[in-house]
């Protein structure tokens, strides 16, 4: 914009005295044909090498055609001949703007304005320099001074618009959204319905999740066929943010139908980009992959296609391919926001936490205070910040047993690979018929070590001190698990646990030790089906043994709220039958259907509810109906403190060692007692 200002200024002050032979050169400059203008004035200077106007115009043509350093040298030579010439000085200063050397330009413009405080070009040039340096507050002051010199100047108003756009973006990065909105709306005073201001305003509304305002703003943009497609692309994203992905796909499909009739390759790319995103949001992965392959065949090595492939990888559990595709983006553009933060998310999905931290911090070096990057780092911090968790509950069953327990756990991560836990469990139980009472104290210390990404070893050691009336005993407790993610969408846990049966007073009295050997396996798919299986073999100190099979086939009906439905089957067998002591049939079978829903009431309040019903059969007894249910509400009072209240009921015979139906009401509180991970300062030093 300032190039045009200076050129028009030169025309008004010099052209009248210039040779008429240069008129065509002036026209080339005015129209922006800088390469042709350069050739024209270069040829002209061969006939009149000392002509000041020709030398000045030649310098502008050289600089604006892509050689700013050469232009700076030409203007410097002119200043040797005309040291105080304002036109040459302002062109010399401007050449540093062409070269994007704003720090060098700033003192030059300040000096020029001090000497020429009423020169419009100098004052506006300083405003634009400050804007390029992102010193928007001062830039606004100087552009207002320029408008005092030339009121209603279109060039100054245009500069003010771009300064406000930059300033608003800075406010957005600092999460000062109200100030950003006010600045963007001020642009409409000079330029009603300005497209740049509308787009930035719509983006602000998307960031702040004001979906209806975003849609209304995008609709304001739809004044031409091209703009209507841009508007639909934006509205589709708004629908996604509003968690209405079906609507997003419908809108995006409409945009695709329209863009086919538009001769604008960039707009087509953006529209296909949004369309494939909408397919992925709707889990139409096969269609998305076909569309991506088609786009890549037509346009290889394009960053937006790599980004789509990476997004598809994250949604389908193929995070390794996502990392590879983000690396391709960064090869093409090391400062790419999608490449840097996208790779951070993909590394996190790969369970490579330290590299994920590094990529997020690298994103912030390119995009200072960027909200998503800061949010990602905060998410990692919260996962690795020391915590205290309190779990308290009251239970009762139809065998007249009542119990109260509390469990306090402290967890301290020392690195992204290693963390420790210490817990104290206290349980008191009483049978209101026999008046038998018992208490248990369990102290456990745990070590969690990540052997490899997606491979975690958990080991817990401790002791259980149980007291029944006047008797007591102490037994060691062991719990070891190897948790693996061997292939995408698969989880496998192998474990051994030694525990003391402490459900009620009678069982505590008998000092029954259980040794559990177990395997848990979960298989996910990209077609919303999942399969979970648990196998467990238990050896008891009373010489009895138990074998358990539990398997569940489930289907994800909805993503938001997350609704799953499925069928469960359970089979249990005991070697010895001791029905007067505890539930121990030779054969137990149960089959049930279940539903599980999880969602949000607000940004800080979540809920879950699950229920299952079916039939069970003990030995050869007749089938009986079973029912179980659980519900909970959790509120996040702050980023570091949350509270969960829950209740559950079950009459399934295998739910307790004694075979009783029971009810439990409980409360869980979690507090992050430090503000950052212990290793956070070391992590920042490494970066």
From TrEMBL:
<keyword id="KW-0677">Repeat</keyword>
<dbReference type="Pfam" id="PF13181">
    <property type="entry name" value="TPR_8"/>
</dbReference>
<keyword id="KW-0732">Signal</keyword>
<protein>
    <submittedName>
        <fullName>Tetratricopeptide repeat protein</fullName>
    </submittedName>
</protein>
<dbReference type="InterPro" id="IPR019734">
    <property type="entry name" value="TPR_rpt"/>
</dbReference>
<dbReference type="InterPro" id="IPR052346">
    <property type="entry name" value="O-mannosyl-transferase_TMTC"/>
</dbReference>
<dbReference type="InterPro" id="IPR011990">
    <property type="entry name" value="TPR-like_helical_dom_sf"/>
</dbReference>
<feature type="repeat" description="TPR">
    <location>
        <begin position="18"/>
        <end position="51"/>
    </location>
</feature>
<dbReference type="Pfam" id="PF14559">
    <property type="entry name" value="TPR_19"/>
</dbReference>
<keyword id="KW-0802">TPR repeat</keyword>
<feature type="signal peptide">
    <location>
        <begin position="1"/>
        <end position="18"/>
    </location>
</feature>
């Amino acid at each position: 914009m300032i190039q045009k200002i200076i050129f028009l200024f030169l025309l008004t002050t010099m052209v009248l005295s210039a040779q008429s032979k240069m008129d065509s050169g002036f026209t080339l400059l005015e129209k922006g044909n800088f390469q042709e203008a350069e050739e024209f004035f270069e040829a002209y200077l061969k006939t009149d090498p000392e002509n000041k106007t020709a030398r000045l115009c030649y310098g502008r043509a050289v600089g604006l055609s892509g050689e700013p350093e050469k232009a700076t040298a030409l203007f410097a030579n002119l200043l040797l001949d005309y040291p105080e010439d304002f036109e040459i000085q302002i062109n010399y200063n401007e050449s540093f703007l062409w070269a994007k050397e704003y720090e060098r330009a700033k003192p030059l413009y300040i000096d020029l304005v001090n000497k020429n405080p009423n020169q419009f070009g100098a004052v506006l040039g300083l405003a634009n320099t400050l804007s390029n340096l992102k010193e928007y507050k001062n830039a606004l002051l100087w552009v207002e001074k320029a408008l005092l010199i030339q009121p209603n100047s279109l060039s100054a108003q245009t500069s003010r618009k771009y300064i406000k756009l930059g300033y608003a973006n800075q406010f957005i990065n600092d999460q000062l959204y109200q100030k950003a909105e006010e600045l963007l709306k001020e642009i409409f005073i000079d330029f009603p319905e300005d497209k740049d201001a509308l787009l930035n305003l719509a983006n602000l509304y998307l960031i702040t999740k004001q979906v209806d305002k975003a849609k209304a703003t995008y609709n304001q943009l739809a004044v031409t066929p091209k703009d209507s497609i841009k508007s639909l692309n934006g509205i589709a994203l708004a629908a996604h943010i509003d968690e209405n992905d079906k609507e997003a796909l419908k809108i995006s499909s409409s945009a695709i139908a329209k863009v086919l009739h538009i001769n604008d390759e960039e707009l087509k790319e953006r529209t296909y980009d949004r369309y494939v995103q909408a397919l992925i949001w709707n889990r139409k992965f096969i269609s998305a992959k076909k569309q991506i392959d088609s786009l890549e065949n037509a346009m290889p090595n394009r960053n937006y296609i790599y980004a789509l492939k990476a997004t598809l990888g994250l949604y389908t559990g193929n995070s390794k391919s996502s990392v590879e595709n983000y690396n391709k983006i960064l090869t093409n553009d090391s400062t790419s926001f999608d490449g840097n933060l996208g790779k951070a998310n993909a590394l996190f999905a790969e369970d490579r936490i330290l590299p994920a931290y590094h990529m997020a911090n690298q994103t912030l070096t390119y995009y200072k205070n960027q909200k998503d990057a800061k949010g990602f780092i905060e998410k990692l911090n919260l996962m690795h910040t020391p915590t205290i968790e309190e779990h308290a509950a009251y239970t009762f069953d139809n065998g007249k047993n009542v119990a109260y327990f509390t469990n306090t756990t402290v967890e301290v991560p020392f690195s992204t690979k290693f963390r420790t836990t210490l817990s104290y469990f206290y349980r008191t139980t009483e049978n209101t018929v026999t008046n038998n009472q018992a208490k248990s104290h369990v102290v456990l210390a745990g070590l969690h070590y990540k052997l490899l990404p997606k491979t975690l070893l958990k080991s817990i050691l401790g002791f259980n001190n149980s007291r029944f009336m006047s008797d007591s005993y102490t037994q060691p407790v062991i719990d070891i698990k190897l948790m693996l993610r061997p292939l995408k969408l698969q989880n496998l846990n192998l474990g051994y646990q030694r525990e003391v049966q402490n459900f009620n007073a009678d069982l505590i009295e008998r000092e029954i030790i259980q040794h559990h050997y177990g395997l848990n396996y979960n298989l996910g798919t990209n077609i919303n089906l999942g399969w979970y299986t648990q196998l467990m073999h238990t050896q008891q100190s009373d010489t009895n043994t138990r074998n358990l099979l539990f398997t569940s086939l489930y289907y994800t009906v909805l993503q938001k709220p997350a609704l799953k439905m499925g069928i469960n089957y359970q089979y249990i067998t005991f070697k010895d039958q001791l029905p007067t002591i505890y539930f121990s049939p030779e054969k137990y079978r149960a089959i049930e259907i279940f539903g599980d829903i999880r969602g949000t009431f607000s940004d800080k309040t979540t809920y879950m509810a699950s229920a299952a019903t079916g039939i069970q059969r003990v030995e050869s007894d007749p089938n009986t109906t079973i029912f179980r249910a659980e519900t909970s509400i959790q509120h996040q009072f702050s980023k570091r403190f949350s509270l969960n209240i829950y209740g559950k009921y079950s009459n399934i015979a295998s739910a307790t060692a004694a075979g009783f139906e029971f009810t439990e009401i409980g409360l869980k509180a979690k507090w992050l007692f430090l503000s950052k991970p212990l290793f956070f300062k070391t992590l920042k030093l490494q970066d």
